[in-house]
Specification:
The chain is an alpha+beta fold. The protein is built from 10 helices and 12 strands. Strands 2-1-5-4-3 form a 5-stranded antiparallel beta sheet, with helices on both faces. A 5-stranded mixed beta sheet has the order 7-9-10-12-11. A two-stranded antiparallel sheet has the order 6-8. Helix 6 packs across helix 7 and helix 7 runs parallel beside helix 8. The relative contact order is 0.07. The structure holds adenosine-5'-triphosphate and magnesium ion (MG).
Length: about 350
Amino acid sequence: MNDKNQIARSRKFLNDIINKIDDPIFVKDEKHRWVFLNNKFCELMGRPCSELIGKTDHDFFPKEQSDVFWRQDEKVLNSSNADVNEEKITWQDEERIISTKKTLFEDPSTGNRYIVGIIRDITEIHFARQIERENQKQIIHADRLKNIGQLAAGVAHEINNPLAVLYGMIQDLNEMPQSCNSEKAEKMLHVARRIKEIVQSLLMFSRQGESGRSDENINDVIKDVLMLTSSQLARNNIELVRRFSNDLPHLHVSPSQLQQVFMNIIMNAVDAMPEGGKLIISTTVANSIVKVEFEDTGYGIPEDIADKIFLPFFTTKEIGRGIGLGLSISYGIIEDHGGRLEVESKPEGGAKFTVNLLIS
Ligand SMILES: Nc1ncnc2c1ncn2[C@@H]1O[C@H](COP(=O)(O)OP(=O)(O)OP(=O)(O)O)[C@@H](O)[C@H]1O
Ligand SMILES: [Mg+2]
């Protein structure tokens, strides 16, 4: 076989392979003209390849759309970095989502530069991702509702005592000389304020899955959670020890999501100490990380389940007491904040959960 034949054969071989690829492929020159296209691309455009070669996006797409493609081409030509973009296009009267990866190819023999593009139809993946995100949101919300249910009893108990005090004070008030009234009123105001704070924190917690971020001192986020859980700890004979650092920088976080994480960890600690015990909550800052540690003196986590506790629906609790979502949701939330949620079982018994949050 002579050289010419051999070249023709290998060219055909390469062409066949490229046409076999099920993703649309195009090559553009520096003037944005298509110089090479595979069959799948022409199929996507709904035209024979011969009609497309030498033309540009401007000849086929609305100006708004082709301007976007043009700018992306320029970006690749100017920076020589690969560029990936996701776009909505209408194909055969159907809206599709495509992802296009463009890379620069410089022909060493001529010095000419080309943009090589591969298009992937990611419509199904895109919607699957959207559904997954939606499901995730609903799961987080369900966990929140469950926590609110558990908290409601505790909060009712918590406000019941100050309410009884307040009631008694109001009854006394009429029987007292005028001079005592202002002191008594001051006390009543204090008790009423406490009730208001508790109810407000429950309301805040119940607000639906807010993920908006703001600059927060993590100590304050924990304090909000303790406002709702401290009575539950006390009723379960759990001594609460707070070791809060005074030097915490503000972190850009979703306070409501972090409340949910801390709530889950504290509730688990309560469950792990049915006979009472101690819960130490400490915050520290070192090496650009804010650390929040929850150490309990409960039954601890046996080694054989330590790697499973973050899995969704893993629970060792009896039916009706736990569904196994708390830690998996918390893990996701902390990851979403660019942090890490870790656990260790202490040799002397009990568990320690650590939330590491990066200072950005
Ligand atoms: N502080 C802890 N001490 C001992 N075991 C723990 C502790 N925290 C979590 N676990 C273990 O991890 C498992 C998973 O916890 P997770 O919070 O995800 O689910 P759950 O508490 O069982 O149910 P849910 O949180 O959905 O009500 C628990 O069932 C328990 O076995
Ligand atoms: Mg739990």
